[in-house]
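Batch manifest, entry 17 of 40.
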Amino acid sequence: MGRLSGFKYHELMRRLRKFGFDIDLPGPGKHEVWRQASTGRKVTIPHHTRELAEGTLRAILKEAGIEVEDFLRG
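Output type: structure tokens
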């Protein structure tokens, strides 16, 4: 298990809000599109109850322009 394992949707949501992201619109299926108002950057995140896969979380952070260390400090 890596440093990014064990995160669920609600924890990701809470931390994304700290970086200025907010829900923009529902995405396809059980996904949501979140947007950062200051930059207009958009990320698509899955909305389900199980833990996010570490690779999925890394891809979300890369798309959001958030460093792993900054996210973990959140």
